[in-house]
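Figure 3 (text version): structure tokens given as input.
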């Protein structure tokens, strides 16, 4: 990915733990790397086809100057979030907030916080088999799209499926959404649990009935296996109610562990049924 670099942007602001810092203010310096695709702009010579670094600089100056936070960690986190949300050509950024006059009380040359934040491609499966199933799904997906840091880009058609796991219960409505997020996997999981709770999801029976079920299927090509979260979803290759909607959205998406595409997984599943 191409880079646009901004170095040494000077901003006067009132961030700090001490009251004097918040009252009197001081100079901060910002370094940023904007990761984007500059090829189109390079060919067209049109400012509309790139991330306008002048606008980004003025926005950073305004945001840092108009807000007050105790920690430069917070300055960096909030600013990175706002840049990703406001400037769509920016897919990822490295951001460094420098505080050359931090009240340390010892000789030093500089203090800074540097972070990297980016948009991630995620696929989230949804399902419901209690009450007004369509309403549970509609409200859940609408709520998902309202969370800052999650943008639902496309949803599959809703399919009907028989219950999975051997528990006697009503049929399910299932589907998958493609989205992008700058949340970590753990933060995204917390959001999904909040949405499930808003629809009165209860976890009493494993693989049992539920008002709304939301599962992370893919998060980029991340492989994660711990007590709280397994990505890719550990049993997706055996679930046609996941693979069929995924086939609609991303048939050539490959499982980062097995290397098999969605299309290959569903062909293999059908051959074994």
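Below: residues designed for each position.
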């Amino acid at each position: 990915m191409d880079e646009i670099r901004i170095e040494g942007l000077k901003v006067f602001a009132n961030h700090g733990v001490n009251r004097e810092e918040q009252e009197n203010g001081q100079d901060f310096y910002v370094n940023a790397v904007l990761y984007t695709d500059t090829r189109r702009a390079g060919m067209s010579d049109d400012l509309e086809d790139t991330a306008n670094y002048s606008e980004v600089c003025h926005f950073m100056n305004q945001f840092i100057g108009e807000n007050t936070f105790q920690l430069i960690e917070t300055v960096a986190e909030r600013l990175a979030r706002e840049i990703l949300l406001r400037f769509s050509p920016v897919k990822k950024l490295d951001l460094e907030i420098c505080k050359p006059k931090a009240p340390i009380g010892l000789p030093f040359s500089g203090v800074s916080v540097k972070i990297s934040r980016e948009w991630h491609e995620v696929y989230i499966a949804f399902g419901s088999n209690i009450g007004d199933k369509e309403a549970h799904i509609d409200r859940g997906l609408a709520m998902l799209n309202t969370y800052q840091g999650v943008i639902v880009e496309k949803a599959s058609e809703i399919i009907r499926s028989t219950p999975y796991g051997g528990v006697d219960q009503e049929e399910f409505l299932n589907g998958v959404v493609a989205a992008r997020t700058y949340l970590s996997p753990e933060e995204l999981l917390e959001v999904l649990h909040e949405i499930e709770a808003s629809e009165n999801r209860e976890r009493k029976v494993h693989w049992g009935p539920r008002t709304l079920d939301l599962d992370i299927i893919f998060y980029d090509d991340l492989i994660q296996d711990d007590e709280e979260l397994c990505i890719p979803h550990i049993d997706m290759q055996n679930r046609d109610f996941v693979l069929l909607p995924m086939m609609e959205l991303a048939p050539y998406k490959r499982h980062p562990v097995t290397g098999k595409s969605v299309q290959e997984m569903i062909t293999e599943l059908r051959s074994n049924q």
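The first helix runs from residue 19 to 24.
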